[in-house]
Amino acid sequence: MIDRRGLLKSSLLGCGAALAGALSRFPLAAADAASKGPVVETTLGRVRGASASDAYSFKGIHYGASPEGAGRFLPPHPPKPWTEVADALQYGTMAPQNLSTATGSDIRIAMGDIFGPGGVGEDCLVLNVWTPSVSRGKRPVMVWLHGGGYTGGSDGAPTYDGTNLARKQDVVVVGINHRLNVFGYLYLGAIGGEKYADSGNAGMLDIVLALEWVRDNIARFGGDPGNVTIFGESGGGGKVSTLMAMPPAKGLFHKAIVESGPTLRVISRESADEAARKFLAHLNVTPDQIDDLQKIPADRLTAALHSMTGPAAIPLGPVVDGRSLPRHPFDPDAPAQSANIPMLIGTNATESTILLGLGNPSVFSLNETDMRTRLKASLRLSDESRLDGLIAVYKKWRPNATPSDIYFAVTTDRMMRMDAITQAERKAAQGAAPAYMYIFAWETPVLGGKLKSPHGIELAFVFDNTDKTTGMNGTGADLQQLADKVSGAWAAFARTGNPSHAGIPKWPAYTPADRATMVFNDECKVVNDPGKEERLAMSALSAA
Q1: Contact criterion met (CB below 8 Å) for 98 and 305
Q2: 24, 199, 234, 453: which is the annotated catalytic residue?
Q3: Is 234 labeled as catalytic in the residue annotation?
Q4: Which residue has the higher pLDDT, 358 or 170?
Q5: CA dist., res. 82 & res. 62, Å (int)
Q6: If you ran DSSP here, which 8-state letter would residue 96 be given?
Q7: Is residue 322 within 8 Å of residue 224, measured between CB atoms?
Q8: Is 34's pLDDT higher than 60?
Q9: Cβ(156)–Cβ(21) under 8 Å?
Q10: What are the beta bridge partners of residue 525?
Q11: Among the listed residues 541, 533, 536, 534, the one whose alpha carbon sits nearest the alpha carbon of residue 382
């Protein structure tokens, strides 16, 4: 049997999401040029926001205390209350990063700024709020979880600015920074005992604490704490998937959107323990010195992680620790605790053009032999006839496709679409709340069009920020029209649990019988079971 999670997992959980999540540089921004806005009372103290573009922003609000030093690897806790009004005018600190980024390629240059403003450090438990009004209301709340796998990224990336989504769709947008890589997901429970039992999911517990902040405070920003949607892309989609199975998160959100990050399984306790021991050995720290990890400078830990590449690399992400995460998110089935949570799940048509092409431009000009060699290795196929059969199916529906086109089609399905389908199937099988499926098929014209519909391309349309990301999506009137449709669907789903709205065709829920899928393009349409033959061929291959 082929390991569906095995194909270039490091690419998916590493650079892809954050690279596609912040697509071109623009000024520090919004808050710096904006006038000071209203003061809002929170449970911890008063914060002053900024007013701009018919919306208000509150940036860099601390929802958690600094986990530096004695708090490192431990569950988060709220910060101490403050008495003076705190300015919430600039993005806060982003987590220490271990996001690999290729340099020197035309794709990398097109991506531009991938993090946005803000310093880097462990005191990163901050969030940002955008709202049309601070008057008490019942606006849907949309809580964004950034991409970058579990190793990098920041809510300060330009694409994630929530101003347009908030003011045009009348919703409240919240974005979160939290602990990443070894600071958020190094499982020390088997080595260090009870003290560190929650260390493997510290980053996820940060998100839970932020959701508790939303529950307790968002009404003061015009939002409805009883109508919270969590949404994320790539690694952020993985975080959404994981929260669906975390008992501490139960009741803190009511709808969920997974963009290009379907996650069925996460890291086992055994694999996580092995990774932690490998990391300690790399640092020359023995198991009986584990408390010393709280004293080592953060930059030394980050440098050690950077140096662990290739065979020395370690997996980092949520851990089935038997505590905050007692099971895999969507394996063998959808989690019962979130059966009543509607889901919106989808992928882009050619995810792998960036995931596999970043820093490796040769994949855009493969010949037939190169394509077959790469697919044989990535699919771990030793039987040439099975590879022949699979390629034939993909070529049948793409008569003019180049070998690179076939390569990207197969790897996109293998890395993303098949798991998204499985996630939707398992959600639908519960029969409690609907799942809706989409494919984002609009093709970007930049770089001569060779990226087609890459990983992360939908983000600027979701946030209605295509004018800020021209380095990735180009310019043109068609961009705003599609942004209206996509952002409108996301907001409609957040409002009602159904993404249908007047600007797009009626969008039925996904079922194994019809497999209704919204295809987003200049013309949006619902297609039943798109790519059926490829889906069946890939399923047969995986089951063999």
Answers
A1: yes
A2: 234
A3: yes
A4: 170
A5: 11
A6: P
A7: no
A8: no
A9: no
A10: 519
A11: 541
Q: What is the mean pLDDT of residues 57-62?
A: 98
Question: For residue 148, how many C-alpha atoms fall within 13 Å in the half-sphere facing its CB?
Answer: 29
The question of whether 328 is a catalytic residue gets the answer: no
Amino acid at the residue 282? H
**What mean pLDDT comes out for the span 482-500?**
98
The pLDDT of 5-20, averaged and rounded, is: 38
pLDDT digits (tens, 9 = 90+) for 422-470: 999 999 999 999 999 999 999 999 999 999 999 999 999 999 999 999 9
The length of the chain is 544
Query: Could you say which of 259, 351, 425, 534 is catalytic?
Result: 351
Architecture of the structural domain at 9-346: 3-Layer(aba) Sandwich (3.40)
* pLDDT band, residue 479 (cuts 50/70/90): very high
CA distances 180 to 67, 235, 318, Å, are 12, 11, 10
- Residue 58 and residue 220: Cα distance in Å, rounded? 12
pTM: 0.93
CA distance 168 to 492: 12
Q: How far is CA 34 from CA 52, 58, 173, 276, in A?
A: 5, 11, 18, 45
Q: Hunting for tokens 């929650």 — which residue is that?
A: 198
**Which tokens is 507 given?**
């969008």
By the 8 A CB rule, do 177 and 154 touch? Answer: yes
Tokens 């531009």 belong to 112
Q: With the C-alpha atoms ordered 391, 394, 395, 400, is the resulting torsion angle positive or negative?
A: negative
Asked whether the predicted pLDDT for residue 190 surpasses 70, the reply is: yes
- Any bridge partners for residue 267, and if so which? 319
Q: Look up 534 and say whether it is catalytic.
A: no
The pair of structure tokens assigned to 182 is 């070894």
- For all residues of the chain together, what is the average pLDDT? 91
Catalytic residue from among 62, 146, 178, 455: 455
* pLDDT for the residue numbered 204: 98
Residue 349: CB atoms within 10 Å: 23
